[in-house]
Design brief:
355 residues; alpha/beta; Heat Shock Protein 90; Rossmann fold; five-stranded parallel β-sheet; 21% strand; globular
């Protein structure tokens, strides 16, 4: 009906929203099943490096703010004024907090609240996600982190799920040397989930400036001017993904060159030097890691600094991600890439390069 143009504009928007919600749900289900298979096989790895706790928590919260607004749930963050550094894998940290906040939103009724509190407990960082939802019956509390265990809280769930998210959270937190616990005062009284993670010895508490997140048509903050004049090379062999990434970056002011292969990207790099590279690691005619190494080799020959690079990824093996890091890819983004996140990451790379 959409292709045939048979729907009025309002109906078409509702149809597209339904398609998007169900596509994202399907993506999450597949991702959870793949992670559980990695856990069972002992192949779920993390690549720890110094990571900002506040950036990872607030990034997860902002990625879910639209969902909370759609459900009529308030989403609050406390304690974000000061940061601490932990030795963590940014992709997996985002996954931990996204799962916990998303779980809280699902089980909180309209006009309820989900609160995320960041703090310290001695030498540990503490993040507590508290909701005002159904709560957890006492008999279910010892089992909430078990695989495929959904419990009575899911009676209110309006969207499908496999009961895997919390079990994955427990495993990822353990890989980071931390712990996660759940509590509840009983049915109808909400449920706080608390994560404890070791703080890096070199961590220094410092004020954090909140990152502005522009909405549609916002031209006042991180909106259309965020990347004005920035040159970006987007390398992706999937046509739709390539065009979407290019469109998002152009909408925020970037000057974008696209390449569908390693060969096309190499030709583009021979002609000019972009400010940032956004490249998939697995391309139809070659390896994105080899492309990254080629780009950095060109820069050394030209006597210039390395080009900061971003790699959208499906969470490959630890070896692949380490190889990508050595080839100049500073950040990995979990597919499918959120448009706002892509813009924020490119902007943050430029800030790091000039600082």
């Amino acid at each position: 009906m959409l292709r045939a143009g048979q729907l009025e504009k309002a109906d078409a928007q509702r149809a597209l929203a339904a398609i998007e919600r169900n596509s994202l749900l399907q993506t999450q289900l597949i991702s959870d099943l793949l992670d559980v298979s990695r856990i069972i096989a002992g192949r779920l790895d993390i690549v720890p490096r110094p990571a900002s706790l506040v950036s990872n928590v607030t990034g997860a919260v902002e990625s879910l703010r639209q969902e909370a607004e759609r459900k009529g749930v308030g989403l609050l963050v406390e304690g974000a004024g000061h940061d601490c550094v932990i030795a963590g894998d940014p992709l997996r940290l985002q996954q931990i907090f996204t799962n916990l906040v998303g779980n809280a939103i699902e089980f909180t009724p309209r006009h309820g609240t989900v609160e995320v509190v960041i703090g310290r407990d001695g030498g540990l960082a503490r993040v507590t996600v508290r909701d005002t939802g159904r709560g957890i019956p006492a008999g279910d509390l010892p089992h909430v982190f078990e695989r495929f265990r959904k419990g009575d809280r899911t009676a209110a769930r309006g969207e499908g799920g496999l009961g895997l998210g919390l079990s994955i959270v427990r495993h990822l937190v353990a890989l980071h040397g931390g712990s996660v616990t759940a509590d509840s005062a009983g049915a109808g009284r909400g449920a706080p989930f608390s994560v404890l993670l070791p703080i890096a010895e070199s961590s220094i508490e410092r004020p954090v400036e909140p990152l502005a997140r522009a909405g549609p048509g916002d031209d006042t903050g991180a909106g259309s001017r965020a990347l004005r004049g920035v040159t970006v090379l987007v390398v992706q062999d999937d046509h739709d993904t390539r065009e979407l990434n290019a469109l998002v970056l152009r909408e925020h002011g970037a000057v974008v060159t696209v390449a569908a292969s390693v060969a096309e990207a190499a030709d583009a790099l021979a002609r000019s030097t972009p400010d940032v590279i956004v490249s998939d690691l697995r391309l139809s005619d070659g390896d994105g890691c080899d492309l990254g190494a080629h780009a950095q080799r060109l820069q050394r020959e030209r006597g210039r600094e390395m080009i900061p690079a971003v790699a959208p990824t499906g969470l490959g093996s630890e070896g692949e991600r380490r190889r990508a890091s050595s080839a100049g890819y500073r950040i990995h983004l979990l597919k499918p890439v959120d448009p706002f996140e892509l813009v924020e990451v490119v902007s943050s790379l430029l800030c790091r390069s000039t600082s």
